[in-house]
Each structure stands twice: as C-alpha cells, then as structure tokens.
C-alpha cells in the first residue's frame, strides 16, 4: 500500500490506544512521522460492531464497499483479514501495527455500514521524519 506497510512488534516506536464507543474513537485526529511504526490498540467499548481501518480515501471507500457487501451476503458476519484493518465485536480489543512510509494526509475510519457516514473517521497527518508530532 502506498501509505505504508504492516509493522512488527519489535519495531514499534509508540502505542496509541483508542476506544470505539458509539460513533466515535474518542479522538479527532492523529499525527505521526514518516517511517514511524505505531501499535494501535483499539477497544470496542460499545454495543455495536466496529472496525478500525487506516488508509487513503480510495482505500477507505474500497473497504467500506467490501464491508457493505459482506453484511449483505453473510448474515452480518464481518470476516476479513486486511493488514490495515481490525474488526471488533462489542467488548473485544484488537491491535494493528503499521509503519507509515510516506508523508501526507490519510484517514482512520470505521467502515461498518453507516458508521463512516455518521462521522466515525478522522485524519492521520504523516509529517517528515524530522518534524515533531
């Protein structure tokens, strides 16, 4: 993926903890540096299924379409293993480790049908490696 790649636990530079509750992750935006490996720990503290996906707008739109198709074809079961996403049932906690490879503006989002549209997304700003975030 042009915006990064899956990272390894041994390379984690920092951890960002988020809680999905209602239609929010409890944050408005994220700032990281190019080359930084982030461990995202996401807890689903609500009563609805959620996912946490990172990517550019095209990646988010594609993932949202895939999730809508899965909901329609598999009785609501969300069974996917995308490297840039984690799916969480109520009460579950998941982890995603990602290395951001280039600067720019990307997005974190929940792509469960209707959640993105309800505002469950925000920008990820990836700055140059030598800029404080």
From TrEMBL:
It comes from Nitratireductor rhodophyticola. Pfam families: Copper-bind (PF00127). This is Cupredoxin family protein. Residues 18-126 form the Blue (type 1) copper domain. Keywords: Copper, Metal-binding. It comes from the Bacteria. PANTHER family: AURACYANIN-B, COPPER-RESISTANT CUPROPROTEIN COPI. The keyword Metal-binding applies.
